[in-house]
Amino acid sequence: MPVTHVLLTALWGGLMALERRAFLQAMVSRPLVASTVVGLLLEDIGAGLFVGLLFELLHLGGASLGGSHPDHDTLPAVAGAAFAAQMGDASGTDSTAAMWSLAVLVCLPMGQAGRALEVKLDERARKYFGRAVSAVDAGDLRRAARQNLRAMWPQFVFYGLLCGLAAELGTLLAPFEQTLPLGVLRGLAWAYPAMGTGAAAIAVRGTQARHRFIVAGVAATAAWVVAFGSWYRGQP
Question: Which domain holds residue 12?
Answer without folding.
Answer: 2-118+149-232
